[in-house]
Amino acid sequence: MPAHDTPARVRDAERFAREILPAVSRTFSLSVRLLRGELGRSVLCAYLLCRIADTLEDDGHAAPDDKAALLHAFLRCLDDAAVADAFPARAAHIRGDEAHVRLLRRTDLVCVLFRSLTREARERVAHWVREMARGMADFTLRHPQGLRIQTVEEYREYCYYVAGTVGCMLTELWRSHGLTLTAAQYYALWARCTQFGEALQTVNILKDIAQDAERENAIYVPQRTLEAHGGSHETLLDPAFLAQNRAAVGEFIALAWTDLDQAFEYLLLLPRHAVLIRAFCVLPLLYAYATLRELTRTDAMLRRGGVVKISRAEVRALMVAGLGALASNAVLRRLVARVRVAPFTPFAAMAE
Prior knowledge:
There is one protein chain. The chain is mostly helical. It contains 17 helices and no strands.
């Protein structure tokens, strides 16, 4: 660790990381905070590093060559403290969500936290962040006029880089931080770990179709799928093509249900004694099931400014019910079966 990474600076870095987390995370903020000790620090740092890469990729105004160069420069921050310290100035022109940009401006501090992790955690986090960022850079250069996914196969490739890598990284972190698994248990988790990340990514993409197209100049619904139903990227938010676009998106909703069920099986395969890790996984999955249910009932995501959200009451109810059901896979299955078909707000009904 560099000499200027004093204990005080490491504490400052961790304090900043914990303070910024709720502002930059919608799905994983509470989940990350449920983890403890070195595992919690590793996942916190890994999440913020991934978010920094995502912020670089999402800037719809920066030139593709510039974004790709910044993504590669960001990766050098993981190996060189001087590069990390200088990186915020190099990326000062990047625009985006205010909280995400604020995180980007303190890449140096996040890298201080990264360098304070155990050697094994650093190696696993660095490996998967590199895989993610290199894939992002490739897609940025592949679509210089703005991301326009063409086929389902290309969509799958993109989701692997931006989200499947996260599932792989988490699975390796579980084991490196002491989760006791037989070889059979580990390989069963490994077989589903990419779906854990990719399913959550697909749900986020579906609910943010309009926002991504309008704010980030990115369209993830494949052109070929839209064309098969009589639409296109150019007419994605055109009210005259709403029926065609909704039919195309329906194919992706069906895909998301399948992926989400595989992600749920990942959770059920985690040993029951790994309570905090199961808690980490259960909340984003339940929120994704609820969001996907709402996506089947609306076309708001295909209207300009459209937003698809679940209610705060359901978020709270799912948090309580999900954490309470962790010890029983059967109870978790029943909870998911209920969430799939109707809003889960039993406490609101009791209050009435």
